[in-house]
Amino acid sequence: MLNRRHIRIKVMQTIYSFKGGESDSFDKEQKFLLHSLDNIYNLYLLLISLLIEIQKKSEDYLDKTSKKHLATKEEKNPNKKLVNNEVLLMLKNNVLLQDELEQRKISNWDLDSEYVDVIFREILASDLYAQYMQTKTTSFKEDRAFVVDIFSDIIAPNDKLYDYLEDKNLTWIDDLPVVNTAILKLLRKVKQDALATYFLPKLYKDLDDKAYAIELFKKTLLNQSKFSEVIKGKTQNWDSERIASLDTVLLKMAICEIQKFPSIPVKVTINEYLEIAKEYSTPKSSIFINGILDKLVKEYQETDTLNKTGRGLM
């Protein structure tokens, strides 16, 4: 689920908030980093459980409308296409998923059901729903396409849901694009015979990614004074107070990758930190960071001190 860029962002945020020095213990910050990464999975489960609540809401909605005192013939014999949506039922009946939700205590919608109501009303009022409900017959392919559409067009861009998630956990806003992308990828590719584990993807693609997060965090902090000197040597014409604090953190992390991670190509490192700078720092930060790293890499190449192994390093 997680990609390396998002891991870098989480490490950046943790280092930026760190106020100690190389000699200080940063066990607390490392635990915070790992908790912050793990909490992305809680966001994933929360949004997946929202789809389950929509299916439950549709059942409740049909039950109430069919029991109205002056219910119409159509209301007494409603179209149950949404209630019987195979993908939504697949999620609802997934025992492993339910166990994970209970274990992580993901029960937000029990207390905050008004947000489920908001999403459900938007679905009922949408052209997507009107088109989907034109017939009473369906297929797994059509059910899947409908769930993909309501997630991408109604749930993901919903402002009230966005505000709710921001109130619950500020860091979730940074995580939301990654989680939404992961959910859409799973929904688009799900098959009728998918195993129960399908909707319980691993947070890390492999153990190397988790180790990378820890090592990048530790090695950057353990060498921060050394990296500060490297930055100072390349910014002699700059007023240090004018260099954004976040730019300094990003430069330290980038230098750490260039020096301490032989298997990561230099181009990958530079491109990743430039993109992060564009998103999180000042308008000119990416230009500044690119200039410093470009000078540094050329110096390492000239002195044959670029510690890289494997192909495609530049």
TrEMBL record:
Gene Ontology terms: biological process: DNA-templated transcription termination; transcription antitermination
InterPro entries attached to this UniProt entry: NusB-like_sf (IPR035926), NusB_fam (IPR011605), NusB_RsmB_TIM44 (IPR006027)
Keywords in alphabetical order: RNA-binding, Transcription, Transcription antitermination, Transcription regulation
GO cellular component, one term: cytosol
Recorded GO MF terms: RNA binding
Pfam families, per database record: NusB
Domain (NusB/RsmB/TIM44): residue spans on this chain: 191-298
Annotated PANTHER family: ANTITERMINATION NUSB DOMAIN-CONTAINING PROTEIN, N UTILIZATION SUBSTANCE PROTEIN B-RELATED
Stated family: Belongs to the NusB family.
Name of this chain's protein: Transcription termination protein NusB
Source organism: Xanthomarina gelatinilytica
